[in-house]
Amino acid sequence: MSSLLEGSHPGEFLFSEAPGTLSRENVTVTVPAATTYPAGLVLGKITATGKYVAYNNGASDGSEVAAGVLYAELKNAGAAPADVKGVAVERLAEVRLAGLNWNGQDATAQTAGVADLLTKNIKCR
Prior knowledge:
Blueprint (H helix, E strand, L loop, with lengths): L13 E4 L6 E8 L3 E3 L4 E4 L6 E3 L11 E5 L3 E3 L5 E8 L3 E3 L11 H13 L2 E3 L1
């Protein structure tokens, strides 16, 4: 008997958000080659370009500050990094902490990321 592994669904990490699309922004995310970013990925924003990448608390380019949460999966099947249009939850939301993807960040980095999100009025529960 085989089993199926179901991936994340768009917005499944959300408990609540502001009415309409007030919580969300259209963003450009730089996705590494042959990579799929799941819904719920915590994002950082590169200061120099304004583009989003996976949150990395050890960086020094702006992505060390959690700036939002990826609403829906993004894929890059190419052989080089690509800028992909997506949607991020950036403000006025409650999210399920267990539903967030930290892209391998340790507990200390996650704690810092939760604090960053709170400054954007994104409450992790």
